[in-house]
């Protein structure tokens, strides 16, 4: 199955690994630069890149300074059950190696608000760090709740400790983050940003149900848990520009059907995480099985995993 990382004008870049740094007992930061030191495509807080590794493409949040366009910086969590992405980075990747990079792409942008509450679990701190730096530069009020298994596992603590706006919660010392206190009273004008494991995100989503619509912004590192495989139904895709109709069987994806029909869309993860295959919906109701679409979203679909609630979807293709 071919993976196409092409994204906009930047396309796919070949970058050099210029530095590796151990940030905690399980997190390694990676610095990437153009081999001849050209400036890299611009990005904003919340953006990520697609990192091409042998037999894998993985998405990693950019966590450096957007103004420093001479390099990108990401952080990679070592996962015991890794299918090859994190284990390769930690065990094999070395300075001087060339890697393919797609993006940057931003599905987690920083929106305008009166104040900000950031909630991070483990490696979920990475997309929030550039946001915090921007908020500090703009003089915007913010708070951060940062939880992890232990202090040894929590990356970038040295950059955060000592700031009264930061509350650190190592699980082995303090237990779970106190979300009931942090989110117990809806606050008008506050934007809540959360990134971390699925359990944390689900808990934050549940507590924000009574908050004003549009308050909560989350980024998942994997698509939402899916328990609907047995209930999936076939549906039709109609391509608005040609009128062509394609049927998506219950056991296939819209992206695979489009590929087979010779319609190539950018795609990197095929798991509803990266956003590269985003396609505008002209009519019909999508069934979102991705990690990106906001509740009630009907104007876009991620055809690598998402489907249709209606009998057909008309796409802007």
Automatic annotation (TrEMBL):
Residues 10-111 form the FAD-binding FR-type domain. GO terms for molecular function: 2 iron, 2 sulfur cluster binding; metal ion binding; oxidoreductase activity. Keywords: 2Fe-2S, Flavoprotein, Iron, Iron-sulfur, Metal-binding, Oxidoreductase. Residues 235-317 form the 2Fe-2S ferredoxin-type domain. Transmembrane segments: none annotated. Its cofactor is FAD. This is Oxidoreductase. It comes from Nocardia speluncae.
């Amino acid at each position: 199955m071919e993976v196409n990382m092409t994204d906009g004008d930047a396309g796919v870049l070949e970058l050099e690994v210029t530095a590796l740094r151990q940030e905690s007992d399980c997190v390694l930061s990676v610095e990437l630069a153009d081999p001849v030191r050209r400036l890299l495509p611009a990005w904003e807080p919340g953006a990520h890149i697609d990192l091409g590794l042998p037999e894998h493409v993985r998405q990693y949040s950019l966590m450096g300074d957007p103004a420093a366009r001479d390099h990108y910086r990401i952080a990679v969590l070592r996962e015991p059950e890794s299918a090859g992405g994190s284990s390769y980075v930690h065990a094999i990747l070395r300075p001087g190696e060339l890697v393919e990079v797609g993006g940057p792409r931003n599905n987690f942008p920083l929106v305008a608000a009166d104040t900000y509450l950031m909630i991070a679990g483990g490696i979920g701190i990475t997309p929030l760090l550039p946001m915090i730096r921007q908020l500090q530069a703009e003089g915007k009020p913010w708070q951060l709740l940062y939880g992890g298994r232990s202090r040894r596992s929590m990356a970038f603590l040295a950059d955060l400790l000592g700031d009264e706006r930061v509350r650190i919660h190592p699980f082995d010392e303090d237990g779970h983050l106190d979300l009931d206190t942090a989110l117990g009273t809806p606050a008008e004008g506050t934007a809540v940003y959360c990134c971390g494991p699925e359990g944390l995100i689900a808990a934050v989503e549940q507590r924000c149900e009574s908050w004003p619509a549009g308050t909560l912004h989350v980024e998942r590192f994997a698509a939402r848990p899916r328990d609907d495989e047995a209930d999936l139904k076939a549906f039709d895709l109609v391509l608005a520009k040609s009128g062509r109709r394609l049927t998506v069987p219950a056991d296939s994806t819209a992206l695979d059907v489009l590929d087979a029909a010779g319609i190539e869309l950018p795609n990197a993860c095929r798991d509803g995480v990266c956003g590269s295959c985003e396609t505008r919906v002209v009519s019909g109701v999508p069934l979102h099985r991705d990690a990106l679409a906001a509740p009630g979203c009907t104007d876009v679909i991620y055809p690598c995993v998402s489907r249709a609630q209606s009998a057909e979807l008309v796409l802007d293709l």
